[in-house]
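ligand=iron/sulfur cluster
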Amino acid sequence: MPIEAAPQSPADNPGDPRHPAEAAARARGLAALDRVVTGCRACPRLVEWREETARTKRRAYQDWEYWARPIPGFGPPDAPLVLVGLAPAAHGANRTGRIFTGDPSGDLLYAALYDLGLANRPESVRHGDGLELHGVRITDPVRCAPPDNKPSTAERDTCRPWITRELQLLRPTVRTVVALGGFAWQALLPVIADAGWQVPRPRPAFGHAARVDLPARDGGPDLRLYGCYHVSPRNTNTGRLTTDMLRSLLREAARSAGLSPR
Ligand code: SF4
C-alpha cells in the first residue's frame, strides 16, 4: 500500500489560493483584508497553539469564548500613523479578538494613546467596548498567538503578506510607522520595501527613539520609521520603558504624521 502524503499546509505552497500571499493580494480594501485574514490557517503550529489555548483557557477567563483566530489590524483605514507590535498574546488578543486588548501591554499602550488624544478611552477591554482610535492604526507582523511569544522565522515570513498588503492599502495616508520592539523593526523593513519605500543598506539598526526617513520609490511622500521599546511587562516592570518615554515617543511620531497630539 502506498503511504499517503500528509496534507500540505497552504504555507508550503505560495500558489495555493489560501496562502497569505494570494489571499492578501486579492483584498481590495482594509475592511476586506481584515475580514479575510481571520480565516487564515497557513501556519500549523500557530493554528494548533491558538486553538489549544482557547480550549484550556486561563483560570480567570474560564467564562470567555476565546477568539482563537488571527487578529486583524485595528484603527481607521486612513490613518497617518501606524503602530506595529509583535504578535497577539495567548490570553489577550487571542481571547478578545482585538489587538492589544485584554493584556497589560495593551493597558499601557491605549492609556498613552488616550493621554495624547489619539483614543477616546484609556482602556481596551473587549470588542464592543466603544474604543475608537483617532488617526492611528495598530497591527502586528504575526497575526496568531505563538507559544512563548516567539514566532519562528518561517512563521513570520509566511505571515508577511498580510501586513504588506495592509501597508499598501494605507499608503495614501500613512506617513509614520512606529515599530514596537526589535522584532517588529526587523519584520517591518522588508514589508516597507515591498510596499513602495526605499530601505537603505546596511539596514538601519533598531533602538528606542531610532528614527529613519525612507523615500518613496515612486516620488510619493516619505515614510518615517521610529523604534520604540515594546510595551511588554518585561520592559515596563524593569523600567526599560517608562510611561513618559512611551508618551514622548508617540507624541513625536504623531506630530511627524501630521496629527496634533496633546
Ligand atoms: S500567523 Fe499569519 S500566516 Fe500564520 S496562520 Fe496566523 S494569520 Fe496565517
